[in-house]
From TrEMBL:
<keyword id="KW-0813">Transport</keyword>
<feature type="domain" description="Major facilitator superfamily (MFS) profile">
    <location>
        <begin position="29"/>
        <end position="507"/>
    </location>
</feature>
<dbReference type="InterPro" id="IPR036259">
    <property type="entry name" value="MFS_trans_sf"/>
</dbReference>
<dbReference type="GO" id="GO:0016020">
    <property type="term" value="C:membrane"/>
</dbReference>
<dbReference type="InterPro" id="IPR020846">
    <property type="entry name" value="MFS_dom"/>
</dbReference>
<feature type="transmembrane region" description="Helical">
    <location>
        <begin position="454"/>
        <end position="476"/>
    </location>
</feature>
<protein>
    <submittedName>
        <fullName>Synaptic vesicle glycoprotein 2B</fullName>
    </submittedName>
</protein>
<keyword id="KW-0812">Transmembrane</keyword>
<feature type="transmembrane region" description="Helical">
    <location>
        <begin position="482"/>
        <end position="502"/>
    </location>
</feature>
<feature type="transmembrane region" description="Helical">
    <location>
        <begin position="153"/>
        <end position="176"/>
    </location>
</feature>
<feature type="transmembrane region" description="Helical">
    <location>
        <begin position="192"/>
        <end position="212"/>
    </location>
</feature>
<keyword id="KW-1133">Transmembrane helix</keyword>
<dbReference type="GO" id="GO:0022857">
    <property type="term" value="F:transmembrane transporter activity"/>
</dbReference>
<dbReference type="InterPro" id="IPR005828">
    <property type="entry name" value="MFS_sugar_transport-like"/>
</dbReference>
<feature type="transmembrane region" description="Helical">
    <location>
        <begin position="366"/>
        <end position="388"/>
    </location>
</feature>
<feature type="transmembrane region" description="Helical">
    <location>
        <begin position="66"/>
        <end position="87"/>
    </location>
</feature>
<feature type="transmembrane region" description="Helical">
    <location>
        <begin position="299"/>
        <end position="319"/>
    </location>
</feature>
Length: 511
């Protein structure tokens, strides 16, 4: 391979990252980034098991459950853009660590709270934190990859999400049925509290592990920190090849013509003048996303995120609740068939004597069904990275959105729990694939100085959709559940057709 040098001896980034090789470092980075993504799957869907398990202790009816599932989504709406701004100005690694440690600490504390509204506030802060990790892990991983491997590596992240969806119900199945109870006059701690606490620990462990990884060299280069970027590239080279860092063949990097005189990473947030300078930079980047040449891609990705995320997170959080309602119906009316809407209205009429489900336990089949949903994602998680380079991420995104829209309509016509399970599996497999694909596409659509902020802006719209979806679903599931089913199906069809307008990605080097 020839060296791509200018007269000043500087190599471009694509050449510099390519000659580091591809090996041990990249696999370790995929592991930690994948675990972050897996952890977000756990953090976002944990309430699907807390809802039925803590219903009695926290005195939650359907509307209260809707508010609780909406709380972390509201945190995500607020947190996405804040963390995105910080990641594009202060660095990917430091913000990832901050979000993970905050999520872990808040999660552990929330497991000890005794009142519904206090628990709801803590889940808000969990959402606020975890959305930062979710929005940054894809750009962080992608910025270390040569163009040849980037799309395929990013698509393997879907497998980690799938593992998270499988692991969560297994942990819940292991912990929640345990007879773990400590009660006094002012304090209680039960198995669901233990479950919440255990699910918070991975955030702390992954956050601490991230200290061993470097900052994105692409981001450092964008900030004008050429020596630090070169040090990171030497480290990657040594990790991949086993050679001495001094043997790295690139001796200097090509300077960017528009690099800032002072790295934004050096601006101090506690100094008013420098904070004002940082806010001005954030505003300039925001304006850049909202005008050509980025405006078209910005609004398309935001609309797709809104429709896809509102459908996915709302239905995924409520699937265990729906499984529970089917389970109760089939116990009370053996041999009879029903639908999601009918069983919901019957459930609403039958709980006057036990409005908070204090006499109920989560059936084993509910855990098992949720595991099946995760297992259904495995084929897509394997097929995607193997064929994405041939067919393109855009092709898979369009297919996943349109088919999942048709599946959503199918929920209205199911007549028993088995049909509900089959459609739930297909829905989860396709929509989770779509979310991962959109993150992969965003990495290619925007330049380094806007990449995380663009992802954060689309995430904000997605979480806004999820927030609205959870509130609507929690209110309507007992009254007129056909409305949210039709609404979410329409969202998926619209976003599927809108995806045709996205450019093809994965072939060009990152800006």
């Amino acid at each position: 391979m020839g060296f791509d040098f200018l007269a000043d001896g500087g190599a471009d980034f694509e050449h510099a990252i390519t000659v580091t090789g591809f090996g041990k470092f990249h696999f370790s980075l995929l592991a930690v980034s994948g675990l972050i993504y897996m952890n977000t799957a756990i953090g976002i869907t944990i309430l699907s098991f807390v809802l039925p398990a803590a219903s009695c202790d926290l005195e939650m009816d359907s509307t209260a459950k809707g508010y609780l599932t909406a709380a972390p989504m509201l945190g995500m709406v607020i947190g996405s853009y804040i963390w995105g701004c910080l990641a594009d100005t202060k660095g990917r690694k430091v913000v990832l660590i901050a979000t993970l440690l905050m999520d872990g600490i808040v999660g552990v504390i929330s497991s000890f709270v005794q009142y519904y509204w206090v628990f709801l506030v803590f889940r808000f802060f969990n959402g606020f934190a975890i959305t930062g990790a979710m929005g940054i892990c894809f750009p962080y991983l992608g910025e270390f990859q040569p163009t040849k491997y980037r799309e395929k590596i990013l698509c393997w992240m879907e497998m980690f999400w799938t593992v998270g969806v499988i692991v969560l119900p297994l942990i819940a199945w292991l912990i929640i049925p345990l007879n773990v109870t400590y009660e006094s006059d002012t304090f209680y701690f039960k198995s669901w509290n233990l479950f919440v606490s255990i699910c918070a620990l991975p955030s702390l462990m992954i956050g601490l592990w991230l200290f061993a990884f470097p900052e994105s060299p692409k981001f450092l280069l964008e900030c004008g920190e050429y020596d630090k970027a070169l040090d990171v590239l030497r480290y990657i080279y040594a990790q991949n090849t086993g050679n001495d860092p001094a043997d790295y063949p690139v001796k200097s990097l090509r300077e960017k013509p528009n690099a800032p005189e002072r790295s934004p990473r050096k601006l101090k947030l506690h100094k008013r003048k420098e904070l004002s300078q940082l806010m001005a930079e954030v505003w300039d980047m925001t304006k850049a996303l909202c005008k050509p040449p980025y405006l078209r891609n910005t609004w398309i990705t935001c609309v797709i995120q809104f429709g896809l995320t509102s459908s996915y997170y709302t239905l995924m959080v409520w699937f265990p609740e729906l499984f529970t309602r089917f389970e109760e119906f089939e116990l009370n009316y053996p041999g009879e068939t029903t639908s999601v809407c009918i069983v919901s209205s019957l459930e609403d009429n039958s709980t006057s004597s036990d409005p908070y489900g204090c006499q109920e336990e989560i059936a084993s089949s509910v855990y098992l069904h949720t595991v099946y949903i995760g297992l259904a994602c495995i084929p897509g998680s394997i097929i995607l990275p193997l064929f994405v380079h041939k067919l393109g991420a855009k092709f898979f995104l369009i297919a996943s959105l349109l088919i999942s829209g048709a599946v959503t309509i199918g929920f209205y016509f199911v007549i028993n729990a088995d049909q509900n399970l089959i459609l739930s599996c297909i829905f989860e497999a396709l929509t989770s694939l779509g979310i991962s694909l959109l993150y992969c596409i965003i990495v290619d659509l925007f330049p380094t100085n806007l990449r995380v902020m663009a992802a954060a802006l689309s995430l904000t719209m997605g979480r806004l959709g999820a927030l609205i979806g959870n509130l609507v679903f929690g209110y309507l599931i007992d009254l007129a559940c056909v409305v949210p089913i039709v609404l979410f199906a329409a969202f998926l069809f619209i976003t599927g057709f809108l995806s045709f307008m996205l450019p093809k990605t994965g072939k060009e080097t990152l800006e």
